[in-house]
Amino acid sequence: MQERDRDTSCFLHGHLDAISKAYSEGITMKIFTTLALLAVLLCVVPGAQAQDTQGPGFQDPDVEKSAQTGFKFLSLSLDPRASAMAGALTSQGLAGSTGMFYNPATMANMTGMVDVAIMQTQFIADINYNAGSIAFSPRDGLYGVFGISVVAVDYGELEETIYDPSTTFRDIGTFSPTALAVGFGYARSLSDRFAIGGNIKYALQDLGTFAVGGDDSGGLSSKEYSKGTAAFDFGVLYNTGFRSMNFAMSVRNFSPELRYEQENFELPLTFRIGVSMNMLDLTNVNGDLHSFVLAVDAERPRDFAEQLRIGGEYMFLNTFSLRAGYAFPTDTEGMNLGVGLQREISGFGFAVNYAYTAYDVFDAVHRIGIQISL
Length: 374
Fold this sequence. Notes:
The protein is mostly beta strands. The protein has two domains: 1-63, no CATH class; 64-373, Beta Barrel (Porin), CATH 2.40.160. Helix content is 14%, strand content 49%. It is built from two helices and 18 strands. The strands form three sheets. A 14-stranded antiparallel β-barrel has the order 1-2-3-6-7-8-9-12-13-14-15-16-17-18. A two-stranded antiparallel sheet has the order 4-5. Strands 10-11 form a two-stranded antiparallel sheet. The longest helix has 49 residues, at 2-50. It is elongated. It starts with a helix and ends with a strand.
């Protein structure tokens, strides 16, 4: 009798555990679906309103979505690893602190306590981007992962001119536009498969002080053109359970409208869906020697046509990486290539990454970055 009672108890406990697990996974999927729908609505509804140019109920399919946003420095890919893969980092769960620039939910998969990254981009027209990020995971992520990101842009020195009837145009000096964005991010795993993250940042763009006319004393009156606003990023990451396949989505640069003189504009709101997987999981190749991650991102920007970003990363001995990526359609951006070197010794991780991006009518863009983890 006692043995039968023990068998019955084990049977009931087994079924209760299965029911509890199924219920937990069901709740997780409901949360994931709800957040996905919310992300789609946040992106699609404002985009539809912006294209409604012929009155209520009508949209002109020939209207291009260009020049509808400002603060474009927020949309440039800065991490060399991600850039070499055409920016397809939305669903890659081992991005570390740099995930704040793509999908803040990816920070939740940090394996160490601290991750620091420093990046520099030599962009076209002598524009320089400097960026850094740091993420902290106290008590093995028990309270989630906290992060801080910074982006600083130097547009160089430009000539300022005014209209003068006697000489048509007259140089009156120079000005140096700059831009800055500082963000605070947070990510947490809600289960062993599902993570969520957000990022709030303050973005500032200072175009400089310009002459706008004459004053009563015969001199020039000037006006400062500088704007700042808060913006929000949001992302989710889901491990499908099929080998190493991840699925993710993110919404970046959600903010109120800004205004320069007579024109309103918004930040470059972007919605992305991404999937990634180590393709060698489908083979018998030793994963400790080789890996090949294939990542695909579908992107819907506010101010450009929908884009597809495809990137690949081959890694040998968990040390040497070769990367390539391509995004289409684009105006001038071509192939992306990159290399990387990473090592972990006694819990200390160090990585150096480089990316090269070709442009049709401009010089190539170079990116370099250093990432340290503890």
